Amino acid sequence: MSLSSALSIAQSALLATSKQTSVVSRNVADASNPDYTRRIAVVTSTAPGARAVEIQRAANELLFRQNLSALSAWSGQSALYNGMDQLELSVNGVDNASSPSTAIAKLQQSLQLYATTPSNQTLGTSVIDAAKQVVNSLNSGTKAIQDFRTQADSQIATAVDDLNSLLGQFQDANKAVISGTRSGTDVSDALDQRDALLKKISEYVPVSTFTRGDNDMVVTTKDGTTLFETVPRSVTFAPSAGYSAGTPGNTVYIDNVPVSAGTGDNATADGKLAGLLKLRDGVASTMQSQLDEIARGLITAFAETAPSQPNAAGLFTWSGAPAIPAAGTLVDGLAGSIGVNAAFDPSAGGNPALLRDGGANGAAYVVNTGNASYSDLLISYGNKLDQPMAFDASAGIAVSSGVSDYAANAIGWFEGVRQQASTNADSKQALAARTAEALSNDTGVNVDQEMSLLLDLEHTYQASAHMMKTVSDMLDALMSAVG
């Protein structure tokens, strides 16, 4: 081997080692970045020596896709469960203290106490006060639910704006990948940026991807709707200024295709948008229907009856009074409009004794005249709260039960859905963490490994430097001999 060849080999080795050292140093510097993928300097042996030919990323498509799916599921489930927590407190209060079920139980107690001493009008007034608490619970619960739906609607609008922004950024990153691939330059940074954006996009909607020539990527939703192909598709949504019971929410569209809240029960969501849609149009709307059915049951249970006369609204009234709402049929918004009949309310000039005697709807409905100890009507009202009646199946719980049981079942229904959502959130969070860890272990940076590699490169550098010094010394000796 000639001295010039030996010198060329040593120089080539130094250049290769320098490139490898630069790559390893970058790996160490970005070891804590979850969106960074480890780089590998691939070195090949060529005459007259070795040189680094390219930089590769330690990618794993299968694990990355699994991580995207897990992130989407966790994001949707987290949005759903957190929303349920907020909804529970705003509607039912801490330990269900402000729930209709609790208020109805207190009303029953007041009725029982009044029935023991029907002549005591102070106890009659207590029943009216308890009825007002029931009404307040239903009215405020309705307002809380509709305010929650309005808030969820606003969050959907924000999520849509964020998703459009991410798709725009994805377009820029994808262009950088395509351009770099065509020119033959290192596109590792652009690929990292594109993958990081995919993770963020998957938090809003579940995504599927495939890669075409020049590393060009196409992104679709899980159900096949195109999110990005060369250019981002438009995600649109028209937010509502406010909601009332029974008002449907506007739809989110991706490339003019409607986005659904997904299949499955009220405790399951995939992607933040699906979670918010399910909260707004599923859980909250069902809770509202249950409150409306409780209100209808109360109006029916306390209706005044008389021979040859239609049943008429008694202690509890509504906009359609004196008529009674149709049996087994949901009346949207009834819980927000139910009130205590002024004929019974002493603060409005009414007489609580009408609850004992009847007659709020005229003389035909009077059942007691002059008997201060009469308690049959009071007892019958208390019993009717426990007697089965028909409820609308669309409200999601038992179609036949007493009003008090129905109110308790409404709490049970929500707690069951919330518990299932919590369980789903925990399992999906664990899956997201496990897939992220597996992806990091396969494509991330192990600092110990990189530091060990740096030591090896240092030894390689020292050997190449020593070789260059030896060749230099030999050349100097040759030149001296020739001189």
Short description:
About 40% of the residues are buried. The chain has helices at about 5-30, 60-90, 100-115, 120-185, 190-205, 270-300, 335, 355, 375-385, 405-445, 445-480, and strands at about 40-45, 50-55, 205-210, 215-220, 225-230, 230, 235, 250-255, 255-260, 305, 310, 315, 340, 390, 400. Strands 3-4-5-6 form a four-stranded antiparallel β-sheet.
Topology:
Elements: H1 3-29, E1 39-46, E2 49-57, H2 61-92, H3 100-116, H4 121-183, H5 188-204, E3 207-211, E4 217-221, E5 226-229, E6 231-232, E7 235-236, E8 252-254, E9 257-259, H6 272-301, E10 304-306, E11 309-312, E12 316-317, H7 334-337, E13 339-340, H8 354-357, H9 376-384, E14 389-390, E15 400-401, H10 403-443, H11 447-482
Antiparallel strand pairs: 1-2, 3-4, 4-5, 5-6, 7-8, 8-9, 10-11, 12-13, 14-15
